[in-house]
Inverse folding.
């Protein structure tokens, strides 16, 4: 049975990916430090939902799921020694790195957390693969649409230059892409970076707009609508994201034989390396998104219009040409369906 090691499995995307892969019959190992960036109860509840007895969780000790072929280890990717021990013991066939300090705005408050986790921790993952899993079939890691920064040519293409990030979070994700390429080139590690576009859905992060809006609308509190509502996002439903990860994971990146340093393609390389967008490619105005949410909640929002936040971008729109052409896949869940499913989960989870 193929073994897959996924970091960040108490997180939003990691939790869904574990369930999806286990239901497909794979043997999954998960790592997460369960930090307190947001409510740890939600993280522990995700683990419980995946069959992990949270009473048995001890730092560095594997805990097997009671209902999935899933083993969880509470562990920080910043902890090089224990991380290397896990790589050495598990010898995974595939590695998916989702562990990261998330959040654009929080990077203004606590920049060091992003360097320590997203840079040093990411390097530890690559060093663990290099030294202890030399036969790894594919390394896939989460990048972000945030790397596009000041780009204004839409839709946003993986072939475009992304040298002008507007948040430290985005800069660390761009750094991940550069570091990963270096390791792919030097050590022949098949590597694919996935730029996710505004992921949402059940079990989502409480710091994300949909979660915040839902909570405040139900409580009758005003919601902050930044840039006076003149924002556009390529909202991508979680199920579409995990299906995309699976499509990519089992099709390892290969060197681009046509790549040339005279006219370099930033999304491929002479190394076994690739960058892909995973987005719905159907951008939605923020005010339209809120209108759908109001309809699903049966309650109007009190809107508090605000200026643009530092580090934010006005618009995202994914060009998914490579995803379609090379993997025959395109996310397809519309916001009507996605928001409905989120609201159903939210009301059940919070009993409201």
């Amino acid at each position: 049975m193929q073994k897959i090691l996924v970091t960040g499995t108490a997180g939003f995307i990691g939790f869904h990916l574990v369930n999806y892969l286990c239901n497909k019959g794979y043997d999954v190992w998960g790592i997460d430090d369960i930090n307190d960036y947001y409510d740890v109860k939600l993280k522990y509840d995700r683990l419980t939902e995946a069959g992990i007895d949270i009473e048995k969780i001890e730092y560095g000790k594997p805990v097997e799921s009671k209902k999935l072929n899933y083993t969880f280890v509470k562990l920080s990717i910043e902890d090089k020694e224990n991380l290397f021990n896990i790589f050495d013991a598990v010898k995974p066939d595939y590695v998916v790195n989702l562990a990261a300090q998330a959040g654009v705005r929080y990077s203004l408050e606590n920049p060091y957390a992003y360097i320590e986790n997203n840079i040093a921790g990411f390097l530890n993952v690559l060093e663990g693969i290099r030294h202890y899993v030399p036969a790894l079939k594919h390394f896939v890691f989460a990048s972000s649409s945030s790397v596009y920064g000041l780009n204004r040519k839409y839709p946003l293409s993986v072939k475009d230059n992304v040298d002008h990030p507007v948040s430290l979070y985005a800069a660390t994700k761009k750094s991940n892409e550069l570091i990963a390429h270096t390791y792919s080139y030097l050590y022949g590690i098949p590597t694919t970076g996935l730029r996710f576009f505004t992921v949402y859905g059940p079990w989502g992060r409480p710091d994300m707009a949909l979660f915040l809006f839902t909570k405040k609308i139900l409580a009758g509190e005003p919601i902050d609508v930044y840039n006076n509502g003149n924002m556009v996002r390529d909202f991508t439903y979680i199920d579409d994201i995990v299906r995309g990860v699976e499509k990519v994971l089992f099709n390892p990146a290969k060197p681009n034989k046509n790549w040339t340093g005279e006219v370099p393609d930033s999304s491929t390389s002479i190394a076994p390396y690739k960058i892909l967008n995973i987005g719905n490619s159907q951008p939605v105005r923020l005010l339209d998104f809120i209108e759908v949410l109001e309809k699903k909640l049966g309650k109007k929002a009190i809107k508090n219009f605000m200026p643009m936040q530092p580090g934010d971008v006005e618009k995202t729109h994914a060009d998914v040409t490579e995803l379609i052409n090379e993997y025959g896949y395109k996310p397809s869940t519309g916001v009507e369906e996605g928001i409905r499913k989120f609201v159903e989960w939210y009301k059940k989870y919070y009993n409201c």
Observations:
- The chain has a mean pLDDT of 96.
- DSSP finds eleven helices and 14 strands in the chain.
- The first strand starts at residue 3 and ends at 7.
